[in-house]
Amino acid sequence: MVSEFPIGTRPLPQLFPVRNRLISGLARAVVVVEARPGSGALITVDYALEQGRDVFAVPGPIYSQASIGPHRLLRNGAGLATCAADILEGIGMGDLAAQREAREILPDEPIERAMLGLLSHEPQHIDALRHAMNLPIDQVSSTLALLELKGFIRQAGPMEYVRA
Fold this sequence. Notes:
The protein has 164 residues and is α/β, with parallel strands linked by helices. It has eight helices and six strands. The strands form two sheets. It has a three-stranded parallel sheet, sandwiched between helices.
């Protein structure tokens, strides 16, 4: 919990903007779904822009008062958010979704599949993997490199590997 106020402070409406300044400061981006003119969401956007955060807006029905804020933000250069991928791409994390999908598909190569089966979230040294696979170190090393390039595993320390 992060707050500028002492424990026991009541959640008073006039304190919401101060809280939202902290929230936008902790966030990578701010997404506005609905905001009437002068709303707290737009105050949060002002803080986010001062803090160098990305701002995204979800368009809504043109006759809704709650859509005025997001539409103005879009007109003024906010990123368009129609789905989570728009936001991830906007903050430079668009490849994560593709990597996650790729990780769910097991490798076709039998040695890669076997190596992946040995790895978990606990770091394992390359020598232990070589002994378990009963393969030459160069083949183990190249297989680990390919699995890392494909996003299935990552190095957790010097010559230690875990599933990604």
